[in-house]
Amino acid sequence: MAEATYSLIRFQEAGDSKARAGLLAGGRVLPLDGDINSLIEHWDTIESQLDALAAAAGGDTGLALADVEVLAPVEPAQVLQTGANYRKHVIDLAAAHREPGQDEDEVRAKTAAMMDKRAGQGTPYFFIGLPTAIASATDDLTLPSYSKSHDWELELAAVIGRTAFRVTPEEALEYVFGYTMVNDITTREYVFRKDMPAIGSDWYRAKNAPGFLPTGPLLVPAKFFGDPQDVQVTLKLNGKAMQDESTQDMIFGVAKLVSEASQNMPLRPGDLVLTGSPAGNGQHWGRLLQDGDVMEGTITGLGTQLIRCKDEVATEGSKP
């Protein structure tokens, strides 16, 4: 029997508030028993069954994708986020924040040399996100009224398949179940504490508002995804490409990220490891998110996100 390509989703049927896991093959949704984390954790015993189920799918099998509401495909207990992990992105940031009088070309060259050294000798920069910020790939994004500096950061995310603790880079990808897409929304003015500059960054306030982690729509098993260091990350704002970069530009690849993340804490089945944002954020363009904006995010093989932005004040004012 030929192996069929498929992905996993979480969904709800019309009129039913219960979230279910499903196998998506050929535009049809095949409901599965158990929640998504249970499927990931017991993948070794059910993989062959799902392969066979996907191979046999067709015709009127299961449910039409158009007839279900697709939810975020994962329910992680832990979300690890990675900062400053795309070479061009870091160089652009350094150039944008250079001191008055500094030559831009010189700053770019110096930063590039630093990033090359970091790739060979340094370690990734991690921080923790809250699972409560996760939303689906089509949920509207409410822009909190406390700021006008909300920004986009489309990223590839690795989904952990089995408990990983202090694994090596050489074995790390064996612990990755698959991949999904996350837009890691950031409130720029909250990244650094102006009242306590010695403390540094404040990722809790900057990144964890409701809906600030649009995720999915698909969870693609690693065996179908191919090389995570050779996919394109593209975000369009109102139809214009703002981010369009290959994951080849990562300073630390997925294997290094998973390995390093596992050195301090065990990664559990279903956990997310975000891999950082490529160049082209709103801060770079001098254009941040506004009421009515539409973000269209794609990563090779992971489907499409379509997120509409709504200003919190405007939304509240429209209620009867």
TrEMBL record:
Gene3D superfamilies: Fumarylacetoacetase-like, C-terminal domain. One of its GO terms (molecular function) is hydrolase activity. Its EC number is 3.7.1.26. Keywords: Hydrolase, Metal-binding. Residues 79-304 form the Fumarylacetoacetase-like C-terminal domain. This is 2,4-diketo-3-deoxy-L-fuconate hydrolase. InterPro entries: FAH, Fumarylacetoacetase-like_C, Fumarylacetoacetase_C_sf. The keyword Metal-binding applies. Belongs to the FAH family. It comes from the Bacteria.
